[in-house]
Backbone:
């Protein structure tokens, strides 16, 4: 049998490991040049590993050692983008060439990107995603600026800010948009994963000790600047203040990369907890015939859940083709994934996505970065006779979501805006449909496939 | 000129020469085009609609807000393309090219 795995993060590596153990040689492909995914992204300067990752450095070493040991037993194809799927064929591109790979089982471990929230000034040079700030630090050994504000709603705010401080960068402030009482309310569910909770609490304490100002319950107003960002304006105690900086890292949780799953035939279902559409899958990640999702690409669960769910998906693929697998190991993995995901649902509450800010966006704010479509233009399309009630219709009429990012960074906000403006439930507004190629590929390669 | 981004950690040998909008800059093997450009400046491109400056956003190949031009009219995604000796990069379409 031919098993293809897309994504060499913790989920994809764990899946490849289980398959190799059972004598199956999977193809593991990743757009990145190095393995590790987002959380274990290969450091450019591994001498900085302990400084940068602190207590997590051991986990990084374990994953990369595991991958190195696995390497002879898998076909690893770095620098390879999976850009379309039809029937039992995955279309890939890499090294300037396109190719079509047949498969009998497909495991999608595509991870996630930052969920971002449009605000006035969010397209200014110097404003980056929170994940991007970490990716640059790990992969390139560079900081996004010299004096950085971290803002949004995510546990990764604290983790990323601490990584920056440890590497000697000044963190001007951490502006957490959720109030402290929401975190206390979510605490019982967060105890499902006490170790991770403790790590988060420790990160906050370490930042405080190093004198980094931390504000909770902040209402962000604007990224300030003309040609580049120079500050972040937010409300506190009834007035608006601006904190100066030369770079911003902003993120409001994560958004699964579901495009390939959708093209492969998975049904996307609305998840009220995260207010997004996720691939409908069973406890093992099965979404359709011969199709499995694992890790953050299926449901946000963090690094450990990604590993466990990757192994589970591989066991399912083996069992579905008649290979005998260890039932007890599978049962333990299912419990592990459930526990971690319960914790993530607690996190989604503790770091809530402030959907109501989108309804309140000034008309002139850009919603769609690619096509430069404003909140006002989409509102207008909702308000007119027989106005927009569905996000793909909004895209057709306004071009919001039609650009090269395929709505990855405006799609969720566009749906929230339509729901708020039309006073209808978000679930009914839908999600932007995936289209091949899921990311731009060099011209000429599609024809060659 | 100091740019948006800054290297952390020990200095790396500057073994690559390239140009950005005709200005000579140096870079290190292992740098992406984005790293090379933002260590020396603040802009990667100007938006097709209205010309606003942009300097990337996601830094992981997802937002497509970092595409730069080369003088020969090729386009490349700055955050995922390794910088190479002799690259002649532009923050706007070369004259005579449609955006
Ligand atoms: C920058 C960042 C930092 C994070 N830090 C932490 C942390 O410290 N702790 C924590 O618990 N969680 C962290 N997270 C959450 C994190 O997403 C998960 O913990 C973990 O990385 C998920 O693993 P994964 O295997 O599901 O996906 P990922 O690690 O995201 O890996 C997915 C891989 O799939 C590849 N891919 C995607 N689409 C394609 C395609 N079409 N073609 C080819 N390849 C493709 C990507 O290049 C990527 O390497 C972080 C997330 C981000 C974005
Ligand atoms: S910065 Fe987003 S794709 Fe390069």
Residues:
């Amino acid at each position: 049998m031919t098993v293809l795995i897309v994504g060499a993060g913790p989920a994809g590596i764990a899946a490849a490991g289980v398959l190799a153990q059972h004598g199956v040689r999977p193809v593991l492909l990743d757009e990145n040049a190095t393995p590790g995914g987002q959380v274990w992204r290969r450091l450019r300067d591994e001498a900085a590993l302990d400084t940068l990752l602190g207590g997590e450095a051991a986990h990084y070493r374990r994953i990369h050692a595991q991958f190195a040991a696995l390497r002879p037993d898998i076909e690893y194809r770095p620098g390879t983008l999976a850009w379309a799927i039809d029937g039992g064929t995955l279309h890939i591109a890499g090294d300037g060439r396109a190719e079509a790979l047949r498969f009998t089982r497909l495991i999608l471990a595509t991870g996630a990107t930052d969920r971002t929230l449009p605000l006035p000034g969010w397209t200014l040079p110097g404003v980056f995603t929170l994940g991007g700030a970490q990716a640059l630090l790990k992969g390139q050994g560079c900081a996004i600026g010299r004096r950085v504000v971290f803002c949004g709603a995510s546990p990764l705010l604290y983790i990323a800010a601490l990584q920056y401080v440890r590497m000697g960068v000044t963190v001007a402030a951490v502006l957490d948009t959720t109030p402290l009482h929401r975190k206390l309310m979510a605490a019982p569910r967060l105890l499902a994963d006490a170790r991770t909770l403790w790590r988060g609490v420790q990160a906050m304490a370490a930042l405080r000790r190093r004198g980094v100002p931390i504000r909770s319950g902040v209402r962000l107003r604007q990224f300030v600047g003309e040609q580049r960002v120079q500050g972040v304006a937010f409300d506190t105690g009834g007035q608006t203040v601006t904190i100066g900086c030369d770079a911003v890292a902003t993120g409001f949780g994560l958004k699964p990369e579901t495009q390939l799953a959708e093209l492969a035939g998975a049904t996307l279902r609305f998840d009220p907890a995260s207010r997004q559409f996720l691939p409908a899958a069973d406890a093992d990640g099965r979404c359709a015939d011969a199709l499995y999702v694992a890790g953050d690409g299926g449901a946000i669960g963090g690094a450990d859940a990604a590993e466990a769910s990757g192994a589970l998906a591989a066991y399912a693929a083996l069992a579905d083709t008649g290979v005998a697998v260890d039932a007890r190991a599978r049962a333990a993995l299912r419990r592990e994934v459930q526990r971690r995901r319960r914790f993530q649902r607690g996190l989604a509450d503790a770091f809530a996505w402030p959907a109501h800010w989108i309804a309140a966006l000034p008309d002139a704010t850009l919603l769609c970065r690619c096509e430069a479509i404003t909140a006002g233009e989409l509102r207008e399309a909702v308000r007119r006779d027989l106005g927009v009630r569905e996000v793909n219709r909004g895209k057709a009429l306004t071009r919001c979501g039609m650009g090269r990012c395929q709505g990855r960074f405006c799609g969720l906000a566009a749906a929230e805006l339509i729901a708020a403006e039309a006073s209808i439930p978000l679930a009914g507004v839908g999600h932007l449909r995936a289209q091949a190629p899921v990311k731009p590929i060099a011209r000429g390669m599609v024809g060659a496939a | 000129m100091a740019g948006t981004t800054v290297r952390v950690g020990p200095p790396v040998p500057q073994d690559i020469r390239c140009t950005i909008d005709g200005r000579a800059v140096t870079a290190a093997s292992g740098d992406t085009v984005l790293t090379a450009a933002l260590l020396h400046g603040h802009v990667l491109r100007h938006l097709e609609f209205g010309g606003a400056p942009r300097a990337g956003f996601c830094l992981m190949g997802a937002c497509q807000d970092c595409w730069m031009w080369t003088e020969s009219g090729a386009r490349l995604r700055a955050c995922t393309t390794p910088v190479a000796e002799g690259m002649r990069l532009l923050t706007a379409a070369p004259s005579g090219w449609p955006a």
Q: What stands out?
A: Chain B has one domain: 16-90.
